[in-house]
## 1
Amino acid sequence: MYNLTLNHTLSHANRSFDIDTPVDAETVEYLSKMIDDFLDSNPIAKKSVIQDKEIIKKIYYIGHWNRSGEFNSDFKIPQLWAPLLIVLPPSLLDGKSLINLGRFYSKLGMEALKRGYALAFCNSFDCHDPRLEEIAEYLHVDYDLLVKNKTDDEFLLKTFICIGNKLIPDSPHNWDWTRADAFVSCPKLDVNFVKDYT
Amino acid sequence: MTKLEIISVRPVDGIIRQFYKVDEGILEYIKQKFEDTNKLVSISSKVSEDYSTQTKTFLFNTQEDYVDFVEDKVLQYQNVLQDRYNTYHKITIVTNDT
């Protein structure tokens, strides 16, 4: 049955997770098996299910995309600091494969929500940061090849699913623990933005 | 000893604003790779009373340690981010090494 409430929740990123409370083992196993079953019949992506806090910290530090220079370097993407990160880097980049993968990401997200966890997706990832070399294996990236071939405008197609309990139960989805405030909306509809894009 | 001094100057507009700062991961990286190995002897930072000028001073044990620091690829990328931030916020920068 189509669940409008879950679907609505899926569309809003939860920004603050309780990093110290792991996702229960049965859920991790269930999600992992979902991924295996999907990739067995659709070999279009690789799989990383990450629960190691030290690895998550490394990912969190380069989860930043700030081309304009507006924000300082410590402006991070708060939802990457979650106890469970899943990333399925696509190995095929044709439209049909990417659509299938996107739909599967939604299924995974819905399953996590059904089990009572909070959820966010995250695409903000600075693939130019040399610290990426340390986590290349989790992204299924050949780092040396990436450095050799990348252009300034290139970005990696690595969507993370961030899963865990909310840091503060019943808090708004956009509560940002790094700034103790609501997460900055994007795009910012200030005068300069309107001038630039109209 | 080799000294690296980075002076950042921003327009005075009566509002206290940040200068560029690296994230905690970079601070840990500097500590492990340069401070714990005694390559980097000290770091200091001071801001002028009108908040327009920040002076950061790095003191290295040897000239080779200094070269290792400025040629480190992880830290060099921070320069790219810093340049981007400074351009956006109209901050100019002067670097001295002695």
## 2
Amino acid sequence: MSTQRFYGRPPAGVDPSKLTGALIVIEGPDSSGRSTQIALVTKWLEEQGYAVEQVGLKRSFLVGQELEQAKQGNVLSPRTLSLFYATDFYDQFENRIVPALRAGFVVLADRYIYTLMARDIVRGAEPEWVASLYSMALVPDAVFYFMTSLKTLVERTFTAHTELDYWESGMDCGLSRDWFGSFVQYQRKLKAEFVKMRETYGFEIVNANRTVAALDRDLRGRIQLVLDRTQGA
Amino acid sequence: MKPDIGEALPGKLIAVEGLDGSGKSTQIYLVHQWLKSRGYRVFFSEWNSSVLVKDATKKGKKRQLLTPTTFSLIHATDFADRYERQILPLLRAGYIVLCDRYIYTAFARDAVRGCDEEWLRRLYGFARRPDIVFLFRLPLEVALGRILEGRPQLKYFEAGMDLNLSADVTESFRIFQGRVLDQYLSMVNEFGFTVMDATLAVHEQQERVRSVIEERIDLAYFHKRYAS
């Protein structure tokens, strides 16, 4: 039985004492290996008899599609975009994460409020405003931040996609007209925000420059500790 | 994206608030006509949403998927879009901007739905406080009568059906509107609303509204520099 807490007040109608599952968050940039690891961990947890629910960003039924469209056209102001993302987050939070935790699932979140907050802050949002916006989120049982060197990130990105993504390169931020230059600056800024947030939110930093197998072993050990702590014997 | 709450802008912002049926839209319409005919730089901002937000709202409402939180956020998204693309640029350009409903509608309605009041105020913290907010106050029964008489088909969220106040739509609407009214009244001092007696004749109300505006805003400044 874990003791669930919220950063601020929980959303209307959510009773924290009823949330018996565990919420585990994986944070980190694209190509840091998040989805690969989540797939491996899911398999491992299910083998052990845990029910797993996977959630991620931009997957809500409510606005997931609209967000994708908005990003294609890049027509929304930064604040509108961040509120759209917040809507998407809370829709999934209330309709998927909370019910799954109530049913005792282990919820694996492929990114959580921290990515959203970091992106907003890099785009000029006031940190207090952003923190308040997401204050109704549940404090996870663990947050693993996949830290990679920029070199690794660049190599993995080009291996997987052959080109850099517009948003992951922060091209909307006007940092540089050079795509690669913008990618480097943007990822540095995001990383700096994560490092800052680490103090406030207590991330565990995981070295993601390693092989898939090495990272998986490390992660399993850490998750086992979380489950021992929160899910009883 | 920084808030510019403290920064003085050349424009002025006037908002009207009140229950459905309070006659606020008529009053702001008449203000718009008056200021236009006098040749002032004035803009009327309507609650028409961007297409994207409209689609999402429609989808959520149709499937009754919205929780108090997402209901509130989707409207905040919509408001932010309009605020940053329209209201704020107009204020910077030196216009009188007229708003039929503003953030107080969200404060009242979302609080009735159970959202935390502090959270709501911070959520909308980026929006400037208007120079004048008129609250059109009408006894609940009169406002209900006006609406229920003319538009018997109440929509699900409009009637507050998501709050399970009553299985009967009309009864739910009554209770919901009553609570919204209480919220409005509790904000009068907090935000310095100018309360208007909405039981008076339309032209009488308009006369008072105009005199408040003339008193509080130096209209001469807003004369158009170019004839149009």
## 3
Amino acid sequence: MTNTLQGYPRADGRKGIRNVLVVAYLVECAHHVAREIAAPFRERSVHLIGFPGCYPNAYALAMMEKLCTHPNVGGVLLVSLGCEGFNKRQLGQTVEVSGRPVLTMGIQATGGTQKTIAAGREWVAATLPALAAQPPVPMGIDELTVGTICGGSDATSGLTANPAMGVAFDLLVKGGAKTIFEETGELIGMEHLMAARAASPALGAALKDSVAKAARYYATLGYASFAPGNADGGLTTIEEKSLGAYAKSGQSTIDGIIKPGIEPPRKGLYLLDVVPDGDVRFGFPNINDNAEIAELIACGSHVILFSTGRGSVVGSAIAPVIKVCANPETWKRMEDDMDVDAGRILEGRSTLPEVGREIFDLVQRVGSGAPTKSEALGHQEFILTYKSFEPLGPACLPA
Amino acid sequence: MKLAPQDNVAVALRPLSAGEVVMLGGTPLRVARDIAVGHKLAAQSIAAGEKILKYNCPIGSASAPIAPGDYVHTHNVASDYLPTYTLPQ
């Protein structure tokens, strides 16, 4: 495999395609201080993430550990109020063991808002030059993990952008990459098709179970993962939306099921099961697209392929987001926010394989440092909420 | 266009106007009302309760009888899994 990307090597052997310094608040009470620390450095790859809750949660701790040691991250500043339930000691140790520079600051211990902002900015300013000076090394497609999501979907998403991203996914899998698709709640109705593509019959049964779990979960909450804009865009039912969403996964064999924070063990195609286990607690599985993007990143995704028909503008902290626009009318209105014009397929100006190849090529350019539209516009959305998961079942990752 | 030969609905690749006649697989179809890009119209007569097929996959069931050329959407199709949420007009 030729090395077509540029990466930053990490102590664990992985490489990142960015060298971000993360400022993380560990409770909402520390959000403002963390945001103020990061604000002067927003053009210098300093990204803000955090967890708002005061009550401890194993999922949120695992997510923060994975995000703060993500290959795209080169250093971490943790901002605590001081009395919250988050296990800042464990998170700080995890980052330290990973070989990254890390500092944990307590606002109460440091002397309040102004003193903590000043001390935090001082640490960031002292830490950034070493990150900026780190030279990238050659990196292969087979060292890359790519996640995919659709948001603001309409009926064109399933005709153009999603199948084109599926073509790109097939090319990435052929190149040895790890690829992740998701939202079991947006695969309702597709369970039999997915099971037929599973690497083993037991995995096929587990795929069906994961979708059944999602259907049960959403039925309890009263709504499907279906927004009014989806209907305005011509989608009638969750099954129809699912059909379009499912096309993102391409044609490859499905090699396993993972959960948030678990990385694919080998190259191939994996379904990320984002719907919590057990009784329905803590509300909707993912309250918006960025909640899913954060989970894809916590599973190791270096870059996110995001298809949109209605026109989403979001990016993300930590990993660049490539926006594939499905609808030619949306492209005309919002070209400044979009990286790929897949609506050309609808107009007969391009073919699915051509746009799929264009996405694949763009992934390699973004993996060599080229900014995406949302990155250049400063989008760094991030959200993390409460969930609970049980360990993966034995059939989820066949040998 | 139809996305699979077995489909009983077709998808508008351009905005369609009420009264317009479009050719679908060599058969003329009169469009019952204006239809936006990506939205669906019935390619044939569909009975209440019948599965709606797109890409030869069921996307729900007809909640009312649908005539050829009729607009097919939330007013005459229901999910077989979870109800569709829309904002009041």
## 4
Amino acid sequence: MSDKRYTEDHEWVMVSGSEAVVGISVHAQEQLGDIVFVELPDVGKALVKGKEAAVVESVKAASEIYAPADGEVLEVNEALNDEPGKVNSAAEGDGWFFKMKLSDPSQVADLMDEAAYKSFIEG
Amino acid sequence: MDDTSASGAKPTVLYALHQELGGKIVPFAGYALPVQYPAGIMAEHKQAREAAALFDVSHMGQVKLTGADRVAALEALVPADLAGLAVGRQRYSFFTNDAGGILDDLMISNQGEWLFLVVNAACKEADIAHLKAGLKGDVTLSELTDRALVAVQGPKAAAVLARLAPGVQTLKFMDCKPVEVAGAACLVSRSGYTGEDGYEISVPADKAEALVRRLLDEDEVAPAGLGARDSLRLEAGLCLYGHDIDTTTTPVEADLVWAMQKRRRQEGGFPGAAVVQKQLAEGAGRRRVGLQPEGRAPMREGTVLQNAQGEDVGVVTSGGFGPTLGAPVAMGYVTADLAAEGTALQAVVRGKAMPCRVAALPFVPHNYFRG
């Protein structure tokens, strides 16, 4: 059973048991514009909810991507090194950033579901 | 990642058109201007390199100097040879301060009975105050607030504009002449801020929107915003005031000696001339250079540059991604001994040392029409 949640910082989190895949929302990539570089975390890095986990750079500027929950990086999307534009073309699919092990899956349950996120960005 | 509000910023005469075209409006130098349109910065950048892009640069200040002493009076404030500037020709220059620092950069053209100046929006008020205080003798300054300024830039610009104004294709790079464009009395210069061939058109404000709509009707033309303007000028190695040049940088340090013609370099007679002449003779301690990161991570403004020993030797003043190169590019200042092309340096990006090299400017060759 998987469940997609969104943070107020526009990351999405697809939870599957005690693991989660993290990326940025379609709305976020629209706001950022053309993505030219993604700095991914090292595998094994300890993540702290709300602290920097990755950096995404558009033509204009660099933006920090925050960890949606506490945990550890299990895998990163190496394809973004050569094709950062995947974040624009498939933000909530092939443009995922990293997979993490959740220390406390209940942290994710507090995040917005798709409907709540939709009203958040329209708000 | 937050939306930038343009509240409080002044609209240009083309504001409604920017909104109609879906421009993402941001405040810039006190003006509400599109940073990009729906096509996006990459596409707008390529538009200028491959066809023709249209920019609203009406935020820039347009100033007219008349009076018998206008040439000598302005020469006392800038290191350009204006006495030797033919009618219909334009020069790039800068206002210097007593320390040889740069107060603003500008374009100056000789319109026969008057001089036409185009200055940066952010410096406009200070420039005008500086001019009013510094211009001596019979000179009258008026700001041309009733004119908009639009740029058409790219390899197709000449063919497109010639349809609206037959003859403009014969203008040469840095010509600046009165031309009727689609029925509007304009001042057209063959110049720009992209490294491409193209024109900047000073047009009466009440004719600007019709002219821009007419240009956008042409198949080769699409609108471009501030984002593409910045990536284009960075690839072209052109300075952005307040970033690559400011009151703490001299023309020698900024590698702008080419913009100070021989007579002025020898005679001086502009603010800070003694400092500039000393640096011309003895060299400056640091120099503006191009920087090519070896990886894919952009090096942004403020990034510290180090030598192989890890000692600080300079700083990035403009940096981002060059869409035409498909790679990050930057400019910055380094100590003079490290300014040679090919010198290996490292840039400290988010605490990590990233290798980069001093690169020749421009990154993308200029495509000016010199006749």
